[in-house]
Design a protein that fits this description.
The chain is an alpha+beta fold and 858 residues long. The protein contains 22 helices and 33 strands.
């Protein structure tokens, strides 16, 4: 069975049947109805003043009839729960008055069923079984009656112990004065509802005056309920609510709520500061999206829609004022399972956003700087032995992806064996703290097998408590092109040094050749005069002829020395390539070792070419030396000539090691060489090519590894009739005119003067340029020709020539040199050149040609 009590808790005044107070108001504290129902929910006992809405509710009616219609389902469910052993209660508001309904399980010690009993018995049973302390107090202030719940509440064994006991016994001293006053008021006819404390517990009680037939209050009806736990809960709830209120109010974050329309309904002080307002009323009802910048509104609207569907949302956005915020919204679910509102937590992340942007910008600038500097980053975790690298590091190593990870052992396996020990030693020294920085340059094999030069720099940036390295940071750079450029520079430097050496040797050879030419000029000149005298006397000339032949061979040697020194001017004439090859054969046999055989194959029908024989000799000499170097063992050098399609073809071939295709393509480049740094200048083939093209020819280089090398040079052949007949012999001509001879070598000067005088010329002589210019100035009108040497003390031939031409611009000049024509600069293009050594006959023929050419000029 279920039992309960219903009384008003006074939101408004209501009229009920029952005694009124002295001022005529209804006593709102006495129970309006006390009832008892059976297990079917049927009223079996009903007593009290009644409730204003129930009308004529009688025993036997459904218990739901005690409450208004809208509350009856709640009444039904609460009664069913009480019948199952769970007490409950709810509130009813009617006519501006709030009513409290309480339902408790009945303590039935019988068989479980109760039959209908007389009303008085039912009333006593109802009081006895009531879960509240139901008691009556006499005028002496002692208990006149009390139910079992009251006996238990007082901690007594039975009701007899309570009878005659003062109601105020055990009440806290602080509550006694107020309680005596309330008791006096009750005996005066005024009910009351109050709390009292006794024995450390809190009770909620009420006094209801019980007047007799004469209207005199001789006793007080009272109800008491132990509400200690409820009070404690209320206190804790109040404290919790206060803490929550303080948390919300004092939180540095914006805490706010938005309703189902997306409008703000509340906001704490921090939120108001963020919004820039002072009063919550200014934002209440404002659409939340109005605080979001237009760009972010569509995205935030979707996230809020998800929150209204029950999914918490987190997002960052930019506010309308430009600040950045991060928000979290959680849905609040009502009793029906729907989302009634959203609670949001928002905080300002402007500084974090700006810091993140600044960091991103800094990282971007660093990345761009590293990329511009072509640097890759790497980090070595020495504990885990994992090396991590940036995208550029991965690119350098030939790996794909934005980053790379590998162990030190894997990296070391890709370092060139010749560099591995040095890299390891430097790394160990730095890890041990012996060096401030790790730095190494080494070769590394990329993933595709290519060897690249890398330069690494790094430093241990983190050590453990024992001082052992934990993490090392560094950069790497691909320096392959720089290393190659440096190697090329070193190669060029070595070639330059070799070229300078060769130039020094050439200058020495040229100087020697110059001195020899002066001597040979005297020797050949005197031999020729001696031969003439001996022949006129009819004497034997064989010895003199042999001596002249030896002098001419010496002259040929000096020409080769000048050609070798590259200080001989280009002097083209009709040249027989076969004669050059045969004449050079003896020298080549001395240049080539015994293990190399020289073979000549010459075309007897080979036409002459317009060439400088000395330069052609230089070509053959260079090619022969190259062939010798290409055949360190046995081999054959073949020199061939043949006539082909109006061209004279000269071929030099060997059966040496040959060249690769790459070497063959670059072989004619200046300074390119495959020899050791001290072995060649890289100018030989380039000079050969230059000489051939200067002669209007073409050069073909054919070579392959293991097949030797073939160099084919084609020169334009001289057409018939293009070879000029020799000038008339000096024996047929008689010298006429005055010749000024300026020559510092006395023996040469005397020979030249003697030759000219014997030929009939008037001769003036000077030992240097200063005397020569003075003589010319004194005899300018008499002199027909000036023969001037290039290199002389005090004033050289170039300066002397300029001064003579300044005195008389039409002066005929014949330059003489045993060195090269460079001493006369561009003047050599306008006047005739006579190279030493020369014979008296060549001297007289040249003088005659110069003078005759001048006479033929109008």
């Amino acid at each position: 069975m279920g039992e309960g009590a219903l009384w008003a808790r006074g939101e408004a005044r209501a009229r009920r049947a029952g005694p009124a107070s002295e001022d005529g108001s209804v006593d709102e504290t006495r129970p309006a109805a006390i009832w008892l129902c059976d297990g079917r929910g049927t009223l079996v006992l009903l007593t009290g003043a009644g409730v204003p809405w129930s009308g004529a509710v009688e025993v036997g009616a459904a218990v739901e009839a005690l409450v208004p219609g809208p509350s009856r389902p709640r009444m039904s469910s609460t009664v069913r729960a009480a019948l199952d052993g769970t007490p409950g209660g709810f509130e009813v508001v009617h006519g501006g008055v709030r009513w409290v309904v309480r339902v408790e399980p009945s303590r039935d010690g019988a068989s479980g069923t109760i039959t209908r009993a007389p009303e008085s018995d039912l009333h006593r049973e109802m009081v006895e079984r009531a879960p509240l302390c139901v008691h009556r107090i006499g005028r002496d202030g002692a208990f006149a009656s009390i139910n079992q719940a009251g006996v238990e509440m007082l901690g007594l064994a039975d009701a007899s112990e309570a009878l005659g006991r003062s109601y105020l016994q055990g009440v806290d001293e602080a509550d006694l004065p107020r309680l005596r006053e309330l008791m006096d008021r009750a005996f005066a006819g005024h009910g009351s509802h109050f709390e009292l404390r006794a024995g450390g517990r809190v009770f909620e009680s009420c006094f209801v005056p019980l007047p007799d037939a004469d209207g005199q209050v001789e006793s007080i009806f009272g109800l008491s309920q132990d509400v200690t736990e409820r009070k404690r809960t209320e206190i804790e709830l109040g404290r919790s609510e206060e803490r929550y209120r303080l948390l919300v109010e004092r939180s540095p974050y914006c805490i706010h709520q938005i309703d189902q329309r997306g409008c703000l309904t509340s906001m704490n002080a921090a939120g108001l500061r963020m919004m820039g307002v002072e009063d919550e009323a200014e934002v209440r009802g404002m659409p939340y999206l109005d605080s979001v910048c237009a760009r972010d509104q569509p995205r935030i609207a979707q996230l809020l829609a998800a929150a209204y569907d029950g999914v918490p949302s987190q997002f960052e956005f930019e506010a309308a004022n430009g600040q950045s915020f991060a928000s979290t919204f959680v849905p609040v679910v009502d009793d029906d399972g729907g989302v009634s509102k959203l609670i949001g937590l928002t905080h300002d992340v402007t500084l974090r956003t700006e810091s993140a942007k600044a960091l991103a910008d800094s990282e971007h600038r660093l990345a761009m700087t590293l990329r511009a500097a072509d640097l890759g980053l790497w980090v070595w975790d020495t504990v885990a032995d994992v090396m991590s690298g940036s995208r550029r590091t991965a690119e350098i190593l030939g790996e794909a992806g934005d980053e790379i990870q590998m162990s030190q052992a894997e990296l070391m396996s890709r370092i060139h064996p010749e560099d591995r020990d040095a890299v390891t030693a430097r790394a160990r020294a730095h890890l041990a703290g012996e060096t401030d920085q790790f730095e190494s340059e080494y070769r590394l094999r990329t993933k595709d097998g290519e060897w690249r030069w890398l330069r690494d720099r790094g430093r241990v940036m983190e050590r453990d408590e024992a001082g052992e390295p934990v993490r090392m940071f560094g950069i790497t750079q691909d320096v392959t092109e720089r290393v190659r450029a440096e190697a090329k520079q070193q190669e060029l430097h070595a070639q330059l040094v070799q070229a300078q050496k060769m130039e020094s040797v050439g200058q020495l050879a040229g100087g020697i050749a110059h001195d020899f030419n002066n001597l040979l000029t005297v020797i050949l000149g005197n031999l020729e005069m001696a031969l003439e005298d001996v022949q006129e006397a009819g004497l034997e000339t064989a010895d003199l002829e042999e001596t002249r032949a030896a002098a001419e061979r010496a002259s040929s040697l000096t020409r080769r020395l000048l050609t070798f020194s590259r200080q001989r001017s280009l002097e083209k004439s009709a040249t027989d390539l076969n004669a050059i090859v045969e004449g050079l054969g003896g020298m080549l046999e001395r240049v080539l070792p015994d293990s190399i055989t020289l073979e000549l194959s010459l075309d007897p029908a080979l036409p002459p070419i317009d060439a400088d024989a000395g330069q052609i000799e230089q070509v053959l000499l260079n090619l022969s030396v190259n062939a010798r170097d290409a055949m360190p063992g046995d081999g054959t050098l073949r020199i061939e000539t043949r006539s082909r399609d109006g061209m004279a073809e000269l071929t030099v071939r060997d059966d040496g090691a040959g060249m690769s295709e790459e070497t063959r393509r670059r072989a004619l480049e200046p300074f390119f060489t495959t020899k050791e740094p001290q072995g060649g200048t890289g100018l030989g083939l380039a000079m050969v090519y230059g000489i051939v093209t200067q002669h209007g020819g073409e050069l073909l280089l054919d070579s392959a590894l293991g097949r030797g090398t073939r160099v084919v040079m084609c020169f334009p052949a001289l057409r018939e009739g293009s070879v000029q007949p020799p000038p008339p012999s000096s024996e047929e001509a008689l010298g006429r005119g005055t010749v000024l001879v300026i020559e510092d070598e006395s023996h040469v000067r005397k020979l030249v003067c003697r030759t000219l005088v014997r030929a009939g010329y008037e001769v003036l002589e000077a030992a240097d340029g200063v005397d020569g210019v003075a003589l010319f100035e004194a005899h300018a009108d008499e002199i027909d020709l000036v023969i001037v040497d290039a290199i002389m003390p005090r004033m050289d031939g170039r300066e002397a020539t300029k001064r003579i031409l300044a005195l008389r611009p039409d002066t005929r000049l014949l330059f003489s040199t045993g060195y090269h024509a460079g001493g006369f600069g561009d003047l050599v293009d306008q006047h005739r050149l006579l190279s030493k050594p020369y014979t008296p006959r060549v001297l007289l023929d040249t003088v005659t040609q110069v003078l005759d050419a001048a006479s033929a000029t109008p």
